[in-house]
Design brief:
The protein is mainly beta. It is built from no helices and 17 strands. Strand 13 and strand 14 form a beta hairpin.
Amino acid sequence: MINILFAVVLLSGQSSCSDDDTSGSYPSMKTELAEAFTGSDKTVKSIQFDDGRSYNLSQSISSSTADTLLRCICSYTYNEDTHHLTVYSLGVVTSNYPTVSDSIPTGQPGNYKLISSWCSSRYINAYISYQTTDQGKHSFYFVEDSLKTYPDGSRTAYVSFFHEQPPKDPESYTKKIYVSLPTYYYQSKADTVHLSIGGKVVTALLF
């Protein structure tokens, strides 16, 4: 059985504004994809955004796993004067390592629409929508179709995105989620990663 992280599952925590958060005006709220790192006590210790900015957290935000890297969507404010980051929500994003194509589940394929896609330093990211009534869990996962080495020595990984829909879930309303393929998984295996998602091929160069 494939272990799937469903997006978006909110991590629990407390968010508050201290006196340091306001110096005449409120910082603007931002939402970005990030990596969250948990400690042995299952609390989030630090967050690193895709542009390389990294912050240690003083807030108490708990997770269900210890000593783990989690791909997240983070809503936060940052005070430039006090250099203080305040997290308001942190949701786990589907970002599993690709499974091999002959071990994928045989459930009902689900429809989805690709809204946007882009590459960051360690991921191929996508924003998608799908229809649901919340009658059961939808599964989202990446599948490695092939890993090829060409005569010139170059190596390419071909990966597909799959959405598995529960059997009794009428398409009543739209949900939107982020998904991220961790391209660092292929750092020593390939030079290029091609992700097929929503009728489009997104390419990441790993050199």
